[in-house]
Amino acid sequence: MALPGSFRRTSTRIVVTCALEDRAYDEPDRPHHFDNIEDAIEEVTSMGWHELLDGRVLCHEQDKDHAELGSRVGIVNQDGPHSKGCHCWGCTYE
Predict the structure, then answer these.
(1) Average pLDDT, stretch 65-90?
(2) Of 6, 19, 25, 85, which is least packed with CB atoms within 10 Å of its CB?
């Protein structure tokens, strides 16, 4: 199975990186490895990362570039895609 842009397979495990920069979701001394995409998305989004509508993820960095990519592509949350009136991290939906 092909992996979305923010994911790469190492042997049989998956490492998650930010869609905008080469920042891996990591443990103190090495990247965290996941068995599948579902577990990876659940973990990183529970720690403040954001799942994009195209399948990639954004790290928790709060700057203009991250906000612009999130707004352009769209961010998924537990309740579905963001919509008008959303006031989450970096969200510009009004």
Answers:
(1) 69
(2) 85
